[in-house]
Amino acid sequence: EPGEQALFRGLGVFAGGCTVEAIEQVCGGSDPQIEAFDGVTSLVGKSLLQRQAGAEWAGGAEPRFVMLETIREFAREKLRESGELDATCDRHLDYFTQVAEKSDQETLGGELPLWMRRLDADQNNMRAALEWSLTGNERAGGRRAELGLRLVGTLGRYWQFRSYLSEGRQWCALLLDKTEPAGPSVDRARALRALARFEFELGDSVEARRLYEQSLAISRALGDGQGEAATLLGLGILAMWQGEYDLSRSVYEESLAIGRRIGAKALIASAVGMLGVIHMRNEEYYAAQAALEEALALNREEGNDAAIADTLVKQGSVAIHLGEYEKAKALIEEGIGISRDMGLEWVTAFSLARLGLLALRLGDPQHAETFLLEALDRAQRTGVKRWSRWYLVGLAEVARLRGNAERAAKLIGASGGVATGPDAHYEPATRGEIERIVAGVRAELDEETFERLSAEGRAMSLDEIMAFASTTGRTVSTGRAEASQANPADLTEREIQVLRLMALGKSNLEIGQELVLSRRTVERHISNIYEKIGASGKVARAAAAAYALRHGLAT
C-alpha cells in the first residue's frame, strides 16, 4: 500500500535500527499516511523489518526494528528518488539531537547507566546524523551544521565515559571547522570544551589549553556560569597533570565559587573533589580526606554514580598513602564495582592502577600483575596513557620480585617509550614508588647491562611492548623463564570464547548477543571460568582478563 511504501522508504535513514517512537518522529512527516505501529507490524510480517529485543534503558526495554543492510540501501535509494531524502534526514538529525540532549540532562543523576545504554543502542544513528549535519548548501547546510555542533557538545560526556576519544575528537573538530561563529554561543563553547578534553586525554596538552581558553572566553562573554565553571575544572585538571599545583588549586577554587553562586551541586562536588586531589598531591592527606568525604556526600545526594565511583577510588588512594590498606582496598573495590557496571573505562583503569600499587605494598606480585596488565590493556585500547608509566614500572617490580631483573630493566625502559603519554606528572608518593623500583632494579644489575636492556625497552613499538608485558616472565629456581601454557586451566572452547570477550570489556549481555547465548548460560560459563582459574571476589573479572592476556587467549 502507498502508506507502507512511504514508511518503508523513510526507514532507510536509520542506521543500526530504531524504536517505534523514532519511526513516528522521523518517518511520519507532517501528514502521515499510516500509523507507525501498524506499518511496522505489516513490514515485519513481510520480512522487510526484523524485530529485536531492546536493551533496558530509561524509557524501558523498548523493542528495536532493524533492516538488513541491502534492504536499507534499497529503501534509501527509493527515498532519494521520491525527493523526500533531505526532509527525512533533517527530521532524523532533529530527533537524535533531542535524544542526546535529553540523555545529557539525565547523566548527572542515577539514570546515567540506563541512558548510556540508550546511546549505545543508537550510536550508529548518532553517527549518521552527524554525517548528515556536514552536508547541504549554504542555507540548509548552515542549519544542519549548527545542529551538528549542538549534538557533539551533548555527546561529549558520552564519548568520554565510553572512551570513544578519537571519534569524539574527530567529530568535534569537523563541526567546529564547519560552523562559522556569528557570535559567542553555548553550543560552540561546549563543543570546544569537549574537544579540549579529548585532546588532553589523547596527549596534546598545548592544544587542549588553547581550546579550553577559547571555551572559557565564550562562556564568560555569555555570562554562562555553568559553562565557565565546567571549563575551569578542565583547565585545573590539565594544570595538575603538568605539575602546576598552585595554578590548579586557584582554578578549582574559582570553579567552586561559581558553582556555589549558581547552586550547581554537581559542579560543587567536582571542584571540592579535585581540591582534595590537590591536597593529596601536596601530601596534605587529612585535608584531602576531608574534602573527598564532602565530595562523596554531595555526589550521593545527587545520585551521580560515575562521580561516586571516581571519588571512592580517590579516597582509596589517600588511604594507601596513609598506610590504611584494608580501608583502601574496600574503597577501591566499591568504586571499581560501580565503574565496571557502568562501563567507565577511565575510572576502571585508574582503579586497577591503585589496586596494583596496593598489591605491591602488601607483597602480592601475582595480584599486582593481574591488575596492572588489565589496566595497561585498557589504557592502550582507549588511548588514555597517563598512568601507563606506572603500569609498566609496577610490572617491572613484579618481575624483580620474581627474580627476573633483566625483564624488569626492559620494562623500565619501555615505561619511558611510546606506551606512555606526556604530562604524566604523578603525585610525590607514586613518583617515590617509581624511583624506589628503578633503584632496586639498578642495584641487581651492573650499569652496562641495565642501560642496554632499558634501551631495548625504549626502542620497542607499542605492539611489542604490549606483547612483552603480557607474558608473565616468571622464573624457576634455575633462573630460566617458565614456559607459558596456552590453557593450563583446561577451559572448554566455549569458555575460551566467553573469556576472550570478557577480556575485550564486553558485558554479559553483549557476550550473550555475540555468541547467541542466554544471559543465564553466559553467567554459568563465567562461573566455571572463575572456578578453573581460581578467581574470586570483586576483582574476579580483572583476574580473568589478565589470565586471558597472559596465556595468549585474547588478542
Care to count the β-strands? 2
Rg over CA atoms: 26 Å
Order of helix and strand elements from N to C terminus: HHHEEHHHHHHHHHHHHHHHHHHHHHHHHH
Poorly predicted ranges:
474-484
The helix-and-strand class reads mainly alpha
Give the helix proportion (percent range): over 70%
Distance between the termini: 50 Å
Report the β-strand fraction as a percent range: under 5%
Taking strands numbered 1, 2, ... along the chain, how are they ordered across the largest sheet? 1-2
| Major sheet | 2 strands, antiparallel
**What is the overall pLDDT average?**
87
Shape: globular
How many H/I helices? 28
How would you characterize the overall build of this protein?
It contains 28 helices and two strands. It starts with a helix and ends in a 5-residue tail after the last helix. The longest helix has 24 residues. A two-stranded antiparallel ribbon has the order 1-2. It is mainly α and 555 residues long. About 2% of the residues have low confidence.
List the helices and strands and how they pair.
Layout: H1 2-10, H2 20-27, H3 36-45, E1 50-52, E2 64-66, H4 69-81, H5 85-106, H6 112-121, H7 123-133, H8 138-161, H9 165-178, H10 186-201, H11 205-222, H12 225-241, H13 245-262, H14 265-281, H15 285-302, H16 305-321, H17 325-342, H18 345-361, H19 365-382, H20 388-401, H21 405-414, H22 428-444, H23 447-459, H24 462-470, H25 493-503, H26 508-515, H27 519-533, H28 540-550
Antiparallel strand pairs: 1-2
Helix pairs in contact: 1-3, 1-4, 2-5, 5-6, 5-7, 5-8, 7-8, 8-9, 8-10, 9-10, 10-11, 10-12, 11-12, 12-13, 12-14, 13-14, 14-15, 14-16, 15-16, 16-17, 16-18, 17-18, 18-19, 18-20, 19-20, 19-28, 20-21, 20-22, 21-22, 21-23, 25-27, 25-28, 26-27
